[in-house]
Amino acid sequence: MGDFVLNRGHRLEMLISAADSGSFAAAARIMDLTPSAVSRGIAELERELKVPLFNRTTRQLKLTQEGADVYRRAVDIVARIAELTDGFTNRRGRVSGIVRVGVQAPLSRYVLMPRLASLNDRHPELLVETRLTQDPRDMQSENLDVLLYVGEPPPSRLVAQRLGQGKPAAYASPDYVRRFGAPEHPADLVNHRCLLFRPAWSTGPFDHWKFERKGKLETIRVRPSFVTPDREGLIVAACAGAGVIYMACFDPTILTSGRLTRLLPEWSCPPSFGIHLMYRRGSTGIPRVAAFLRFVREAFADFDPDELTVLHADAVAKSSSPPRVALTKA
């Protein structure tokens, strides 16, 4: 009987991995099995349940309607097993174990890291491991528990909770301003050297910069001199005087140190992207995951919903809390 339950639970994990990764081969890599073992396990599960779980083609693997229903139940069952295991580990109220998190470097460095001490104080036996990724497929391939996603998340079976929105602004180095002057109106940007950040998740026009003042929206199509998905590299280029950037700046010291100055400060910029917390359905019942989810929500709750840009030096100097960045509540 024990072997039967263990095997069925293992098959449910195979089902989840195959559905999330899109192939038996990928599921096999995730679970450290052979593709034939995964295929055999799924076939045995289908025989037990007497329903087809997948529509199999040479190009893709998709859940059937019955398979989708079994998948939802399987996620809950596997999460409850993990919750049971964690519950015994944490029976004295201590949260322990490993939480694997996918996050982009700027969010990790300037939002999570400054607040990490509070998480360690609260849960000293909890180990957090980060991966520099926001690809939902890595939830399986990297065995992640939580993903912080910048932008609109693609369709998936993960829960996606919006934490806030990033508000960009236009920045340039003091040296660039001395050489080329500062724009007096957003339309002046068409005559400036513009450095464009185009993230991999972007689907819209990346060369349209938007500004608002007194209810009036100005959309400027700039002429880029450089385009890259490397946010940090683009900031380095701007600090070196290469041109004007338009982005949410997660590093408050860039402004407070004088390396960059904000352009068109009398204009605000509408939010350009959302920041989402993504995790598997049912995982909130796992103590180590639930503890980290609470920590992330609290970290983002620190931000002022009316704040448009990184706090200026005098405001940062007066605050004993970690510097806040340009985020608004969803």
SSE layout and pairing:
Layout: H1 2-21, H2 24-31, H3 35-49, E1 54-56, E2 61-63, H4 65-89, E3 97-102, H5 105-112, H6 116-122, E4 126-131, H7 138-141, E5 146-150, E6 159-166, E7 169-172, H8 174-180, E8 194-197, E9 208-213, E10 216-221, E11 224-228, H9 231-239, E12 244-247, H10 253-256, E13 261-262, E14 273-279, H11 287-301, H12 313-318, E15 327-328
Helices and strands, in N-to-C order?
A: HHHEEHEHHEHEEEHEEEEHEHEEHHE
Helix content: 25-40%
Low-confidence stretches: 1-6, 304-330
CATH topology of the largest domain: D-Maltodextrin-Binding Protein, domain 2
Name of the CATH superfamily of the largest domain: Periplasmic binding protein-like II
What is the domain tally? 3
The name of the CATH architecture of the largest domain is 3-Layer(aba) Sandwich
Question: How many β-strands, per DSSP?
Answer: 15
Query: Roughly what is the average pLDDT, rounded to an integer?
Result: 81
Shape: elongated
- Could you tell me the strand content as a percent range? 15-25%
Largest sheet: 6 strands, mixed
Structural class: alpha/beta
Oligomer: single chain
Distance between the termini: 49 Å
Q: Please give the order of strands in the largest beta sheet.
A: 4-3-5-14-6-15
Which class of the largest domain in CATH terms? Alpha Beta
- Could you tell me the radius of gyration in angstroms? 24 Å
How many helical stretches?
12
